[in-house]
Design a protein that fits this description.
There is one protein chain. By secondary structure, the chain is an alpha+beta fold. The chain has a domain at 33-79. The protein is 43% helix and 14% strand. The chain has three helices and two strands. The chain has a two-stranded antiparallel ribbon.
Length: 87
């Protein structure tokens, strides 16, 4: 599994730029289509829309990772606040 992380911002038009390092790692190109899934405070982008059952498996993997890491929604919110105050 390829693992890369980066940060980005939401524009006033609701646009999100996928950082170059991610685009290169995943070999993304102009015109690629994404499935976007939102739940609570988590957003997942999946290139090339998978079948519904495949996407549910991906979301389940993310949820299991968060449980194993003992992450709570408040952990994520606190991290976001810390990052925003550093600017």
């Amino acid at each position: 599994m390829i693992s890369t992380k980066a940060t980005t911002k939401l524009s006033s038009k609701g646009q999100v730029v996928i950082p170059e390092s991610i685009r290169e790692t995943l070999r993304l190109k102009t015109g690629d289509v994404f499935l976007v899934y939102g739940k609570d405070d988590t957003i997942v982008f999946k290139a090339a829309p998978p079948a519904d059952d495949e996407f549910e498996a991906i979301v389940s993997d993310f949820e299991n990772f968060a449980k194993k890491a003992h992450l709570k929604p408040s952990d994520i919110n606190n991290t976001i606040k810390k990052v925003r105050t550093r600017r």
